[in-house]
UniProtKB/TrEMBL annotation, chain A:
GO cellular component: plasma membrane
Topology relative to the membrane: Multi-pass membrane protein
Full protein name: Na+/H+ antiporter subunit C
Source organism (scientific name): Arsenicitalea aurantiaca
Chain segments annotated as transmembrane: 6-22, 29-49, 72-93
UniProt record similarity statement: Belongs to the CPA3 antiporters (TC 2.A.63) subunit C family.
InterPro entries found in the cross-reference section: CPA3_antiporter_subunitC (IPR050601), NUOK/Mnh_C1-like (IPR039428)
Location of this chain's protein in the cell: Cell membrane
Record's keyword terms, sorted: Cell membrane, Membrane, Transmembrane, Transmembrane helix
From TrEMBL, chain B:
Pfam families listed in its UniProt record: Proton_antipo_M
InterPro entries assigned to the protein according to its UniProt record, in alphabetical order: CPA3_Na-H_Antiporter_D, NADH_UbQ_OxRdtase, ND/Mrp_TM
Family: Belongs to the CPA3 antiporters (TC 2.A.63) subunit D family.
Name of this protein: Na+/H+ antiporter subunit D
Membrane topology qualifier: Multi-pass membrane protein
This protein's UniProt keywords: Cell membrane, Membrane, Transmembrane, Transmembrane helix
Provenance organism: Arsenicitalea aurantiaca
GO molecular function annotation: NADH dehydrogenase (ubiquinone) activity
Main localization (coarse): membrane
PANTHER family: NA(+)_H(+) ANTIPORTER SUBUNIT D1, NADH DEHYDROGENASE
Regions that span the bilayer: 12-29, 36-57, 77-102, 114-131, 137-155, 167-188, 208-234, 246-269, 281-301, 313-337, 373-391, 411-428, 449-469
Length: 125, 523
């Protein structure tokens, strides 16, 4: 099971990085989302996988009996998913606005902040 | 009541701005109320930072556990001398930039939510400085990122959209790397509390997972802080924002990355012997050199200053790379000095724009004649940044370079000195072009600069002069802060308290598939 999930994490990250290397903004953003989900899965695995051992504390006790599933990674992933979703939504809107007003979905043509025909190094001194 | 406030000193620098941000957001349509809430919030935050600083200086490391969860299980907040200093300087800078913003921020930027975003960003910066939990640090980083993205694109210009997209994608990538590092670290150690991790990692055998995690931390924080091969997003985006926002970004945001690096690589990972030091030395030298070279070819004041942020970050990393108490003290001093000076230079750039109507140095000029006060106020941070005595930058550079000589890294000291000369070149370029030379074109008169702009510039300049003329208490503070960073026992005991010893035991068996076992050890 661990091996299968590890391979899945690898697949997510490979795809994510491949898409992020693209010069097209929308592919870049999809790549970021995939990479984020790969990392979420990795957090899940790093809490160790186990079956049929819910982390429930019996009444009257302070600690559960025997080995239990680790509940913490799920809380961490939930946080990361929520943040990742908000970021992705914001970035999509940003990408759309950039596409509308810069008329560009290609990073090579997005040179407004750093104009290419800028002045050469000062030679006057 | 007073006791309650003092007891929870570590919480207020986060609680105050987040309350103010929520209040400001509630009055979305009333800009006058927002402005009032914002100013009151900033002043209260400054008071809270001062309270924290005094408490930490008197009683040592302050720590609080949220929700009454005992230390390694819940989220801890902890403030040692370094955190307290960073929060203090954030408070000072926030008030100064907030006052400057009253004169600079346009109506439509306020309509787009400047005040809530600004306060929210300060919340996240203070949260990052104070948290004692590595996953919580990730959450503060994300809050910082999303508020920063909002602030960057506030003017909705085309250049801002372009700059923000690059900023957002690269910084989101950096936080993802950080999260990856946290995931691997959690898998290897089973803890997220930084003090607990420090205890665990001290007795853990080095492994590939830990090395990978450390490298990912360095890369993730490196993008945030603007280290050498990863800094290109910074000069591509910072200059597009409105100058008030650029100033607070320049002062604080990259320094949060630097702070996180200091925290992780002093408390948790050893720099010595893991190959990290060699990498850091090269990165530090590259950061200093390439930043200053980048600045040399620019004509836009804001872009010159942006590249100089990168170059100055190199000096701080230099202190961490050498890792002697003296070097870390120098770096702490450098961070405090740099935050004040760099933000001040951006504020001066805003005043230059107000006076001449342009950020382009070739088109401006003559300010020394028309606005001698601004010229004098520019010289203080400019000379301090270049590191000339008797201002704060001289002592900061002196400490760091002295430490690198003593640490046996003579060539690094040489690079640092050479970069200092080139910094002076950039500063004199701004001086000659904007202040000294006769203005080109017909417009001979400069517009007046409002008092609300000059006041924060003068106040920050006064702090720079104070640090410069009496550096002794600041250096002593930095040395004490470095001492607690190098020997983090006080921090660990303050956070973990009783549970640092026997009591609740966390057994973690990576060999079997069994997860964390929590058991009460024998009393």
């Amino acid at each position: 099971m661990d091996v299968a999930i590890a391979l899945l994490v690898g697949a997510f990250m490979t795809l994510g990085i491949f898409l992020m290397l693209s010069r097209s903004v929308i592919r870049m953003l999809l790549g970021l989302a995939l990479l984020g989900n790969g990392i979420n899965l990795l957090i899940f695995v790093s809490g160790r996988l186990s079956r049929e051992a819910p982390p429930i504390v019996p009444p009257g006790a302070y600690v559960p009996e025997g080995a239990i599933a680790n509940p913490l990674p799920q809380a961490l992933i939930l946080t990361a998913i929520v943040i990742g979703f908000a970021m992705f939504a914001y970035l999509l809107i940003l990408g759309m606005r950039a596409y509308q007003s810069l008329d560009a979905d290609h990073t090579d043509t997005m040179r407004l902040a750093e104009p290419e025909d800028g002045p050469r190094p000062p030679l006057s001194y | 009541m007073i006791d309650f406030i003092i007891e929870h000193a570590v919480v207020w620098p986060v609680a105050v701005p987040i309350t103010a941000a929520a209040l400001a957001a509630m009055f979305w349509l009333r800009q006058d109320i927002q402005r009032l809430v914002s100013m009151v919030g900033l002043v209260l935050m400054l008071g809270a930072s001062l309270l924290l600083l005094v408490t930490v200086m008197q009683d040592g490391v302050q720590a609080r556990q949220f929700g009454s969860w005992a230390a390694p299980f819940g989220i801890s907040f902890a403030a040692d001398l370094l955190s307290a200093a960073m929060v203090m300087i954030t408070g000072v800078l926030a008030v100064a930039v907030g006052v400057f913003g009253l004169a600079d921020i346009r109506k439509r930027e306020e309509h787009s939510g400047f005040h809530p975003l600004f306060l929210g960003m300060l919340t996240s910066v203070n949260g990052a400085f104070l948290t004692g939990d590595i996953f919580n640090l990730y959450v503060w980083f994300e809050i910082m990122l999303i508020t920063a993205m909002g602030l960057l694109v506030l003017g909705k210009t085309r250049a801002q959209l372009d700059g923000t997209l690059k900023y957002a994608v690269l910084n989101l990538f950096s936080t993802l790397l950080f999260l990856l590092a946290v995931a691997i670290l959690y898998g290897a150690t089973g803890s997220l509390n930084m003090a607990d991790l420090s205890r665990i990692l001290a007795t853990t055998e080095p492994s590939a997972a830990l090395t990978l995690s450390a490298a990912l931390f360095l890369a993730g924080f490196g993008i945030k802080a603007g280290y050498f091969p990863l800094f290109f997003w910074l000069p591509a985006s910072y200059h597009t924002a409105s100058i008030t926002i650029s100033a607070i970004f320049a002062g604080l945001l990259t320094k949060v990355g630097v702070y996180a690096c200091f925290r992780v690589f002093t408390l948790m990972f050893e720099i010595e012997g893991s190959g990290l030091r060699e990498a850091m030395v090269v990165i530090a030298a590259g950061t200093m050199l390439f930043g200053v070279f980048g600045a040399a070819v620019q004509w836009d004041v804001r872009r010159i200053l942006s590249f100089h942020i990168v170059s100055q970050i190199g000096y701080m990393l230099l202190g961490l790379a050498i890792a002697t108490p003296l070097a870390i003290a120098g770096a702490v001093f450098y961070i405090v000095h740099h935050i004040i000076v760099k933000a001040n230079l951006f504020l001066v750039a805003g005043a230059i724009y107000r006076a001449t109507g342009t950020y382009d140095l070739r088109k401006s000029g003559g300010l020394m004649r028309t606005n001698p006060l601004l010229a004098a106020l520019f010289l203080i941070p400019a000379i301090s940044l270049a590191g000339l005595p008797p201002l704060s930058g001289f002592w900061a550079k002196f400490l760091v370079i002295d430490a690198s000589f003593q640490g046996g890294e003579n060539w690094l000291a040489a690079v640092a000195l050479f970069v200092g000369v080139l910094t002076l070149y950039s500063m004199s370029k701004i001086w000659i072009e904007a202040f000294w030379k006769a203005p080109p074109g017909v417009r001979q008169t400069a517009r007046p600069v409002p008092v609300l702009m000059l006041l924060p510039i003068a106040a920050l300049g006064a702090i720079t002069v104070t640090i410069g003329l009496s550096p002794e208490p600041f250096i002593q503070y930095a040395q004490a802060a470095a001492e607690t960073l190098v020997n983090p026992e006080a921090y660990i005991v303050a956070v973990l308290g009783e549970s640092a010893g026997p009591g609740v035991e966390i057994a973690f068996d990576p060999a079997t598939a069994s997860p964390i076992i929590i058991e009460e050890s024998v009393q």
